[in-house]
Amino acid sequence: MPAFGTLPTWELREDATNILVQSGGGGFANPGINQQNTCLPDGKFRLVMGGVPAGGSYMLRTSGNPGTRIIDNSATTAGTTSVSPYNTTPATLSSNGAVQIPVGTNDLLYTSCDKTFWKAGEYLVCNEDAAVAADYNGGGAAGADSGYDFWFYNPNGGYSYIRQRRNNVSDNFANVGSSRTCHMKVNNWAAANHIPNGVKLNVRVRAVVNNVPANWGPACRFVRDEALAACAPTKLFDIPGYPQFYSCGVTRQFVNNTANRIYARPVSGANKYKFTFSSGEGTFSRISNFYYVNLGWSGLPTLAVSGTYEVTVQASLNNGATYCVVGDVCLVTIAPPAIGGSQNAALDNNGTASLNMWPNPNNGDVLNVSLHISDPFISTVTMDIFDLSGKRMIARTVAIQDGVLNTTIDLNGDLAVGMYMVKVTAGEEVFTQRVVIQK
Q1: Domains of the chain, CATH where assigned
Q2: Which tens digits make up the pLDDT trace of 386-435?
Q3: Cβ atoms within 10 A of the Cβ of 265, count?
Q4: In 3D, which of 310, 324, 332 has the Cα closest to residue 246?
Q5: Long-range contacts of 289-292 (CB under 8 A, 24+ apart)
Q6: Do residues 398 and 407 touch, judged by C-beta distance below 8 A?
């Protein structure tokens, strides 16, 4: 709640019959979070909200800390509101209520959840469901009744659409096996039902096997914003499962080695990154040609031992002439350096030639590549990816400027699971590195 006032009212009604099951709200409200609890039996229901004040928001979730989100409304509208149903044939594949108990287990990848700068043509990706994968049938017609449903809805009512992804349809994604169906291309359907630009939506996913849907899984926020996506915000790397790159809420030493780098989420096409450090002592920025910055630099200002800094990152697509919108804040704490032993200096922006690729292992979608070569006058490099038999699987020519390459290579799911050798040739310099594809 934005201020003292009266709590909004709420009703939970059975979706099929409109019978009132639970209700509440309407009492005195304090500023901030006001929590109310209720119990529901297993079933399918809809939430009706009334009297949400301007500037207010609400979330419906299961109990627990933090619980599972069902509806997440960060931009409420006046009046009585409810999620609009989406009806289709057969009726079992309609939305059938936004509140389904128990909440389903199907969910989006971490990088697809709560993203607020989607653009048409990007792929929203869910985690694979074992039963859907088992009914893949090679992507042929036999898989036409199994796959995933992606439901996009405005929590206030209005836009509501279910995109059906089935095993027999590619959605323009490479045939990489059953995981192909996990990829849903934004707005790759009839314009009448396109996701509107700039509207704060929720998105949820459910598995469908032989035309029998599971309950809807947890809700994520979703905003299509074509302008913001053209120069996307970024932040320190916070994606679970990659401990070697994880940099949000971490402790580092102010020494110049690889273990004490901090990494940002890379932005496609970016060629400079601005890392901004803020504390009670002031604010300053470091510019890097890569999506990481080495700590332990020489010159002032430095990072103080035992200090905690708020760190933001901005990407540039034009060599630093302008920068994209600043992303979320992460905290980084500086620990005292280790006593004794030696510190192996990492190659940084002014060091010798180096090649970095990640994530590795890789899921076969995109490969982030940074390269620093000795000859600043070379304008292109070639990249070849070979399987272990020596067969060339992918060949690319990529532009490089001032001896620095920082880009994202689309693998398009063309590589099967296994180990590959990546060879990058820049004039007389040759770089090789292994990459592992895991799906």
Answers
A1: 5-82 (no CATH), 91-229 (2.60.40.10), 250-335 (2.60.40.10), 354-437 (2.60.40.1930)
A2: 887 778 889 899 988 878 888 888 888 888 888 888 889 988 888 888 88
A3: 21
A4: 332
A5: 289/349, 289/370, 289/372, 289/404, 289/406, 290/349, 290/356, 290/370, 290/372, 290/404, 290/406, 291/263, 291/264, 291/265, 291/266, 291/267, 291/368, 291/370, 291/406, 292/261, 292/262, 292/263, 292/264
A6: yes
